[in-house]
Structures are given as structure tokens and as C-alpha cells.
Design brief:
This protein is 51% helix and 13% strand. By secondary structure, it is α/β, with parallel strands linked by helices. Strand 4, helix 7 and strand 5 (158-160) form a beta-alpha-beta unit. The protein is globular. It comes from Imtechella halotolerans K1.
Length: 177
């Protein structure tokens, strides 16, 4: 059975989690974003912001988790599987902060491809920050640009999801599958 792996991506506070939660409520199989989990685990070890203190270690943990999600999506019994961020997101964030990364990051992007990538644009009206999301809105725009460029570099045609209610955004995504 062929599985379609669908990524929902975008900069911080663009509504990704709300869209994923809504898709889950509609009965779709969705894999959550893992960066908050990695951040919270690091805090238990006394590291306040692992991404800022050790970007490579943080990114290695994200890469490992996203590859694991990709493999789980391949094995899943459902035909459609949605993922809150994909493997290229790791590279986009590393490029955003200007850090270099090992070649296996790019190799992972080349070896694990997604069927469709939906990009949620920066949207100031819903933008918020919290203890895990430290970026300003201007930084969120820059991250968005890095995400878009990174996915395009790996050959993806992105589908930009218009702003609107969660229901409208989910409807748009389902219609464009």
C-alpha cells in the first residue's frame, strides 16, 4: 500500500499545531512536532534553551526524531499521514542561525522525501511567543524564508496555505491533496 506523507510546515506561531490538532480530530493520522519535547527534556537536565546552547546537539535530536517519524509514517496502516514539520526543517533552522552541519543532514533530506508540503505563512494576528518559542515576529519571517528556500532546494513544490480560520485552512489542505 502506498502511503502519502504530508508535511505541514511554517515559521513559529503560524498555526501548524492547530491545523494538526484539527486534522487529528477529523480522524487523520498526525505526527506532532517534536522540538518542544526535545526542549523540555533538555530543561530537565538543566539546559534552558538547548537550541541556543548547543544547536548541533539539538538538531541531531530533531533529525533523529523526524527520521523516526518518517519511518513510522511509512509503516502506518493509514494511507494519509500528516507530519508537523519535516526533515528539511532541521536544515532550514541551522541555515537561519548560520551554523554548519554534517553532510548526513542533507543526505537525510535526499533519502526521505515527502509527497506534499504545505507551508503556513507568517501571520502577525496570531503570533505569540512563550517559554519554548523565543523568536520575534521578524525572526519568524526570516525562518519562513529559510523554510521555503530549503524545501525548494530539495525539489519540493510548496502549497501555501492561506490565512483564515482553522477550519478553512484544514479544508484547503484536504482539497489540495
Amino acid at each position: 500500500m502506498s502511503h502519502r506523507k504530508i508535511v505541514i510546515t511554517g515559521g513559529p506561531s503560524t498555526g501548524k499545531t492547530s491545523v494538526i490538532d484539527s486534522l487529528t480530530e477529523l480522524g487523520y493520522v498526525c505526527f506532532p512536532e517534536i522540538s518542544r519535547q526535545v526542549t523540555l527534556e533538555a530543561r530537565k537536565l538543566g539546559i534552558e534553551q538547548l537550541f541556543l546552547e548547543d544547536p548541533i546537539l539539538f538538531s541531531e535530536k530533531l533529525l533523529e526524531g523526524r527520521i523516526k517519524q518518517y519511518i513510522e509514517a511509512e509503516k502506518h496502516s493509514n494511507h494519509l499521514v500528516f507530519l508537523d514539520r519535516g526533515i528539511p526543517d532541521v536544515i532550514a533552522y541551522m541555515d537561519y542561525i548560520g551554523d554548519s552541519y554534517p553532510a548526513h543532514f542533507s543526505k537525510a533530506c535526499q533519502q526521505n522525501s515527502y509527497d506534499t508540503v504545505f507551508l503556513l505563512p507568517p501571520w502577525q494576528a496570531i503570533y505569540t511567543s512563550d517559554s519554548e518559542r523565543y523568536e520575534s515576529f521578524e525572526q519568524a519571517i526570516a525562518i519562513h524564508d529559510h523554510l521555503e528556500n530549503t524545501y525548494r532546494r530539495f525539489g519540493y513544490n510548496l502549497v501555501e496555505v492561506p490565512t483564515g480560520t482553522v477550519e478553512d485552512r484544514v479544508s484547503f489542505i484536504i482539497k489540495h491533496l
